[in-house]
Design brief:
Structural class: mainly alpha
Distance between the termini: 91 Å
Strand order of the largest sheet: 2-3-1-4-5
CATH superfamily of the largest domain: P-loop containing nucleotide triphosphate hydrolases
CATH topology of the largest domain: Rossmann fold
Helix content: 55-70%
Largest sheet: 5 strands, parallel
CATH class of the largest domain: Alpha Beta
Shape: elongated
Number of domains: 3
CATH architecture of the largest domain: 3-Layer(aba) Sandwich
Number of strands: 5
Oligomer: single chain
Amino acid sequence: MTMSQPPVKKPESLASALAALQANRPLRAEEICRDYLLLNPGCKDHIRLLSHALMKQGRLKEAEDQVRFALSMEPKSPLLLEDLGSIFALQDRFAEAIPWFEAAIKHEPTLPLVHKKLGQALAALGKGKEADQEFREYLELDTDKGLVASAVEQMQAGRFDEAVTSLKNILRDNPENVDAMRYLAGIYYSKKLHLDDAEALLRHATQLAPGFVAAWMLLGPVLMERAKFLDAIAAFGEATRLAPQDAEAWGGLGNAHARASNVEESVQAFARSVALDPNSPGIQMGYAHVLKTIGDQAGALQAYRAAIREKPGFGEVYWSMANLKVFKFEKHEVTAMEQQLERDDLKTSPEIHFRFALGKAYEDRRDYDRAWHYYHSGNELQRTQIQYDLNEFELRQAKIMEVFSREFLAARAGQGCKAADPIFIVGLPRSGSTLIEQILASHSQVEGTAELPILSKIASSIGRYRRDNVQYPQAVRDLRAKDLTAYGEQYLEDTRRHRATDRPYFTDKLPNNFSHIGLVSVILPNARIINTRRHPMDSCLGAYKQLFGQGQNFTYDMFEIAEYYRQYHALMTHWHSALPGKILDVHYEETVTDLEGQVRRVLEFCGLPFEHQCLKFYTTERAVKTASSEQVRQPIYRGALGKWRRYERHLGVWQEVLDDIVRELPETVRNAGL
């Protein structure tokens, strides 16, 4: 401090040091306290705050020395006595901590936090009765804590509206109660309501209390639910920094990295989590999912089976094993699943998973009637759990065709962003899109990304803020040329975080983008669009046998899936008419029977030179997240052609609804599998 600088006043110095501690900057707090103590060595408030800064840094012996020095000047200070007990408790020296907590209470019986700390120390030493008494004292003395505890009891009893009211009242009286913030955010998250409020509450809580691990741990899932995956990574990352031995925090970080397509980072985080807690079935399942993504099937199976050992009724894990496709269940695993279905207390979700998994198990045994029984009953049960309105979908498709007419598209030809980077792969689920993606991703100029939800988000944003409430697709009619360009540029900007290379082209393989081909043509006119097709019966069967993690709600009813196929076919017919030459149809059956011919055709359409590696697509190492992840790591095989014929006696509805579409197919497709 120079002579020209006036001495810092005590309140200002204390406020600065406290703010530094709250911002999780203990070194700065230490500097402020030491600067003040150079001129005022007997200030007990600064000595105490200095000890807190040292505790935050793990320098507990130095903190103890500071507290003992302050106690030598004020031996009956309850706060200093509490601090010395806390230092011992942080080192698990609970027997030494207890007398100091008791001394603090003797001199000031109404300090709630000391009762809590004493209760924790007694509990750690197995003195449960005495600990309970201290916890009761704590709740009685700390009104807010008692109110929060009461709200938690309301939550646990399922009285969520009462709990919300209680927590809001607490925050009205004490806006900085971080416990109330966390629990209120937890209710919002569990109900998937007011997620923006949940995020705001948790962000505020972590600002007020940067070391509040539980708030960081809840903020991560809330951000995941809001598709803010990079922010979720940061939240879970902070949780792992604060609690490096917390397996759940590392598991959350692994899941966040997986959702952000950071597969290697996800594997590393899950590996750390499993090392800390190998007995968590949820973490083992998450670990298995990312191992499957990178092609480590053996590691994935090991993790899936570890999850089952810990939780035999974990139906989702059995289905995840079945979803490896090239995997076959052991006999004892089939028996175990059937025994689970006999339980009277089995919940709906695991029952659905078991039924789909058993369908796969019996299909592998070539018992197709029994396989159909499990697939069909699983679909019927799943249909009761989801919402889907076929009429609403048909009306939306009709509006899209009305807006994106041939005349409308011709009038806007050449507008939009001129970049040719994206290659869109569209179609229906289980129709060979992953195979085409893997072929293209094997080319030196193409990066395979994932099923990107970006285009649909852009579509839903168009017209969002119009006062006349005109929405997409009608709102596209009023877009200016510069608006179309801006949306194309927005798409490219939003895809950058999904890219890991500087290759000039990349794939976007979200099948449902077939609805947005008109939008693609006006915002990204130079993008390539490939429509992957498969025999309608095999396409519907493949989707009907698949239990999707989310979305694709049209696939769980036989009539609805057939009608959806008809709508898809009608819309693709419209696009071919309105955008002649813009879309390349690729039939799965023709790719399987004439791989090189179809690869050359696809590459030529994309303006790419032929590369032999595209024929050896199964040797290309990359993360694949879809249900076909293991199948595209195998050479081309014909076993999947005409698979529907094995179930033909059960497929009368589809044969009737789709007959005219089947008759239009090329003969090689129509007769595949005969």
